[in-house]
Write a structure and sequence with these properties.
single chain; 496 residues; mainly alpha; Lipoxygenase-1, domain 5; 5-stranded antiparallel β-sheet; two-stranded antiparallel sheet; 17 helices; globular
Amino acid sequence: MVIAKTLAAIKLNLPMLTRAWNGLVDIFDFFKHLEVPQLAQRWKDDLEFARQAIQGIAPLHITLIPSLPEGMPLTDDDVRGLLSPGTTLARALDAKRIFLLDFEILDDIRMYRKVGEDGVEERRWAPAARCLLYLDDQRQLRPLAIQLGRDAQKDPVFTPNDDAYDWLAAKIYLRCSEGNAHQMVTHALRTHFVAEPFVMATMRNLPDPHPVYKLLRRHFRYTLAINEGARKGLLDTGGVFDDFIATGGPDKGHLQLGKKGFQRWTLADNKPRQDLERRGVLDPAVLPNYPYRDDALPLWDAFEEYVGGVLRHFYRTDADLEADTEMQQWWKDLTEHGLPVDKLPCRELRRVDDLIDILTTVLFTVSVQHAAVNYLQYEHYAFVPNAPLSMRREPPRQKGTLRAEDIPEMIPTKSQMLWQVAIGRALSSFGDDEEYLLHEGGWREEYFHEPELVAIRQRFQERLRAQREAVEARNAGAEVPYTVLRPDRIPCGITV
């Protein structure tokens, strides 16, 4: 319904879709009947580019690095004037002030390539790009260098010192790479599809009165239906991704990308504290302003206490869990027909601590993590030059050749942009019957009524209210607020 309404609003200006781009000014024609994303006025700015790495649609990539990536021939001369006075690249690396965004996962992924009925071949690109970010003396992140490939001989390193259009194009290509990795791996795989085996095992093996069923039920409400709709409407042959995603099309690069992401993934990757530590950005002293981290961790801690309290009420000892034949069948079904056991933290379900860890991760994933990587899609993707999901030209391999008129020729066509705007708006919308983690008036249905469990739930809600206040206080002084992880705006599960 949201997609149809958005397409209708844009098509009110249908003649515009048939014309070639008139620079980038035409893009605002798409928003005559829609809200203009706030970043449309600042998307070219380097600070805005860096901001999206810590509070954009995919804030899970930024990684502290101890040395320059292999195959990135960057020198002190290249970044002259971009670092603090007297600072070299080596010193900046030693001082823990250089971070990496790396979309190496796109290397060798098949991109859209198809010959039309007119004999003309259409191609799309999303390179295996990477970007260095620098934490300056004001503790602000700035993009320092971008390389649109892995070959030191063929893929130049672009910096803000280069021609303005070279640098702008490099940033656009980088965002395209991020977008393709985000859609299939960060979003679809690591929230939607890894949740599905847990939903299936729960519905097939646990009866309504079972405490684990009661714990999970509200969070699994629409997952299967949403995932089935995504397969048919977005991913299958003829699905929307074929129309505008670089990895879509006859060769199904987006499915290849999802498979590659799954091969690398384990459930532990969805635990925020462990993921942040692996990327070297857990410590606020290293990366002071990281809204995703600062909002996600308190929510994880609240979930861990809540899930642990409920499960320990029913499983006083590990022996109680071992004796629960329904949970043992749940585990058998999960590991034989859902997830390979090496994706999970244990091979057998014998310890209550393991069950707490697993279910905390699952509930965090379908609520907090999904909200973080989903509900900013309209803001992030709708103004397409900020983050196009395909590029129509091969990444530049020479500097100094681009002009203003080249930029519109690189980004998606108007018809492709139409789909990107519509899908972004649909996926950023909340349902009329949405139930949130911190729901006004309380959750609609309560499945536990024992006094001890009521107290555990109340404690969980108290922590969520405190976190909402913390988010509001931080955003009061923020130039660009980050509200997507406010507990009263996080749906309990995957509903879109």
